[in-house]
Amino acid sequence: MPPIVQLEGIHKVYQTGDVQVHAVREVSLKVEPGEFVAIMGASGSGKSTLMNITGCLDQPTRGRYRIDGVDVSQLTRDELAEIRNSKVGFVFQGFNLLARTSARENVELPMLYAHPQIHRREQRARVARALELVGLSDRADHLPNQLSGGQQQRVAIARALVMQPALILADEPTGNLDTRTSIEVMGAFRRLNDEGITIIMVTHELDIARYTKRNIIMRDGRIQTDRLVGARLDPVAQLAHLRVEQESAELV
Fold this sequence. Notes:
- The protein is α/β, with parallel strands linked by helices.
- 35% of the residues lie in helices and 26% in strands.
């Protein structure tokens, strides 16, 4: 199988007045099927730009990019939109759910723009499967204001899954969540990855990155380090530990 992501000599330059900003500098990177990668770095390190290029939201100034074997470096805007809808699922820090729409209907949304159209029976099956994968089958008819923050983020994850993409891109998915909810969301990502889904996540939180399999740290637009995670955190164990801490605090 080809790599899900293959970046070759990617460089991105933004023009700000008379100043050229080199946001990404000669980055080459492969992400194989089934990997779970965290991209980290300080503000201005290039991690968000690299994420946007990987998600076909931006195009490199030079270099070649293949996603799931498809060279997208020179595609038109419409062709990139089709790749985004069919190959990539996005999860953002904000849940971006429609307020007056149920969890089920929010998850259905990407399929409304599919070409060719997806049969209604297939749509229902995909939504049911996606909600099951994130543990929300019993919340399908709930509106966002009837769900916790963690449940809303899991609806957003299910929405990213429903088109059966080759890649999930998550941009600071725990940034607005408390510790317990962040662990629960990382547990959902862990289960998806165990199912074979490839995930790339941007985060500034070192403890969150320890739930992944591979950590990439960027600095000044370049990859500074790229290493496998040795002692990965286990969401189940972390939740149990947090529960014990809270119970002990209540006894004091």
